[in-house]
Structures are given as structure tokens and as C-alpha cells.
Amino acid sequence: MSHTRDWTESSPTNDDWANEIDDFLRYLARDVRERMELEHYWNNETDISQDDADGRHKPGQVSVCLYGTQAQIDAISPRKGSIAYNTTTGRFQIYDGSAWHNFYLPTEPTAFKVRVTQKFEVGTSYSYKTVEWDTEDYDYGDNFDLANYKFVAPSDGLYLFTAQLTLWKIRKDTDAFHTALYVGSDMKAHGSSVDTDFGDMKVGSTIASQLKLDSGDEVTVKACVELDAWTRLEYTSGYQSTFEGILLCPL
């Protein structure tokens, strides 16, 4: 709101009756101004013609409750619901009435879904082979490397992955279909299927796993059979062999 300031720091002068308190008033006004200028516009410093900007917050220079180190945050006695930015950890925190807790602001989602839509043979003789995904349904955040069949974690966090693979056929009683979730060269989850009833039937294997990843970690799906009779993944419907993942929360 536009307003007019009738008082200035140069008044009253020493010639006026208020000369005993004019220095005090000047110093007080200066102190208020210097503190306000840390986070607020003062005296239309950006555009003198825009009077309604006087006193408004300066974008990018406003601390909500507190902007400081972990020690500075721990030293205050905040109200429930207070918000702080922790310069030690680089995270926002909220006070629940008894303790500070990290919280996360929603950003662009990190999620993907890929599938096999053309012929692919899994490994044989218990030798795992990376599944060659060839089609992306979506890749929010652009973190799935389709050319190299892997997801690359964009940040430290908790992630959830699900892989569903369908083998064209499996030999009754004698063969087994294995699937695994790898981070780099380390297996993190495993699933397997056998057919003890009919034989020569399609068989599926599903993996679902929550993983704590570091930025740059690479996640792949690998599969194999114990023998070598049938090794082809089923792909004719386009959705019988899929891999999907999502970032649950950053850490």
C-alpha cells in the first residue's frame, strides 16, 4: 500500500526543543533500518517510484524462522511448526513441538517404466545376463539409460523397484528361471520360478525391492535359466516383461 513518511532521520534538529532525544531517535531509526535492510527493501532502493515496494521482503534473502547451522538451530526455542534451513546438512527442517525433523519439498518426480518388446534370450547354465530393455513407457527425470539397459540414481535416496519377467517355456521339474536386481556388480534381490506340474509352460518371476542408493549408483535386471532348453523372454503382448522404479524420498 502506498504511504507517505512524515518523519526522517534528520529531524528533529539540535535547534529544536527535542534536541535532548534527537540523537537517540536517529540512532534508533538507523539501527531499525540496518536490520530491516538485511531482508527487506528500504526506501525503495530498487525503484524510487514504486512506493509500495518499501518494506517488502527481498527475494532470495528471507529466512523462514531460521537460516543457520545445526548448532544455531538447536540453540533456539521455537514454536511448533517452525521451519529452518540447516546449512550444515543442506536440508529443510520442521519443529514438531519437541524435536526437529527433516522434510522434503516436492520436485520433479524420478520414475520410469521400461519393457521388452522384441526377442531377448536370457543367460544359460546359471550365468546371469542383463535384460535388454528396448522400450520406455516413461522416464521422469531422464535417469534411465535405455541404450545400456540401466537406471542411474540421480541422488542419494530410498528407491522402490519392481521387475516382472515372463519366460516363454520351462522344462518340467528339471529347470528353473532366475531373476535378480543388481546395483553395480552386487546382487540386491532375487526371484526364481520352477514348473512342477505341467512342463513346457510359460513361467513368470517378479522382484520387488526397496533400495538405499547413492548418487550415481547403476541398477540393472539380470536373468538366467539353470539349463539351456528355453531361454527366450515372452514379449508378444509388450507387457509380459517390464521393469519400473521410483524415488520414494531423497536422503
Question: Can you tell me about this structure?
Answer:
With 251 residues, the chain is mainly β. The protein folds into two domains: 17-103, no CATH class; 111-250, Jelly Rolls (Sandwich), CATH 2.60.120. The chain is 8% helix and 37% strand. The chain is built from two helices and 15 strands. It has helices spanning 22-36, 70-75; strands at 66-68, 83-86, 91-95, 100-103, 111-115, 129-130, 135-140, 144-145, 150-152, 157-170, 177-183, 186-193, 201-213, 218-225, 242-250. Strands 6, 8, 9, 11, 12 and 14 form a six-stranded antiparallel β-sheet that branches. Strands 7-5-15-10-13 form a five-stranded antiparallel β-sheet, with no helix packed on it. A four-stranded mixed β-sheet has the order 1-2-3-4. The model has no long low-confidence stretch (mean pLDDT 77).
